[in-house]
Amino acid sequence: MALEPGLYVAATPIGNLKDVTFRVIETLKEADLILCEDTRQTAKLCAAYGIKTPRAPYHEHNAEKARPAILARLENGERVCLVSDAGTPLISDPGYKLVREARDRGVRVTPLPGASALIAALSASGAPTDRFLFLGFPPAKAGARRAFFEAAARIEATLVFYESAARLAESLAAMAQALGDRRAAVARELTKLHEEIAEDRLPALAARYAETPPKGEIVVVVHPPEPAAPAEAGDVEAFLRRALGEMSVKDAAAAAADALGVARKEAYAAALKVKEEIS
Ligand code: SAM
Known about the structure:
Shape: elongated
Bound molecules: S-adenosylmethionine
CATH architecture of the largest domain: 3-Layer(aba) Sandwich
CATH superfamily of the largest domain: Tetrapyrrole methylase, N-terminal domain
Distance between the termini: 85 Å
CATH class of the largest domain: Alpha Beta
Number of strands: 10
């Protein structure tokens, strides 16, 4: 069946060239044009599967300039495939504005699903997958990175990050500081010869990669915060005794509820009792 006009967002392998779907190969062969993040990179895939379709670059440095002509071709009924160097386009890769503007013009946009490093890492990490948040690359500068992980600490879900080998150790150390002693997995070189998934607590992983700097491409998967053990009555009382030295009954009860995970009503009743005892 002839390929319909439109934009095709095609996932390509994240390492092993066998990880490509039949549909992606067929579509790349039949399309009028393949837009590549790097034409030399996509040339390897095309050579492996006998794909002779013309290729043109579409990356962050030429996207603004190239987009109008691409959109004109799409509106003219051509079949254009968008690929990135590895994995799914738009996922920490170029393509968002092209898809957005193609859809705004009524061009049909079709996903051709396949590999993505974040899903590959998550699926084999051992972390819970019912609720997860992909946060892309953490900021490179220490201050911004600290704030980024501190904001992430409040999220009750598995967290997934991309990180470069050069920054892995310092990023893991910052995660350990902000997220605490959580379980995590460092998934490296997935689907390639030196594939490795290292699982441990964040501080141990930070120490390991500080000592032996890693090579290759990396995804970090961090388990959600572990539910705190229920606070004992004695813990609540001790907390309140300290807090009531500095704050009102209402504030001390709120602080105890937040810090120890007890119900606000319960914390308030306990705070009143402690207040009476100490005054
Ligand atoms: N669009 C891609 C996807 O769907 O996964 C991601 C592109 S992003 C620019 C590249 C980052 O993805 C790498 O720096 C690394 O964090 C991660 N990555 C890509 N391939 C990987 C692999 N084989 N193993 C581990 N991480 C990988």
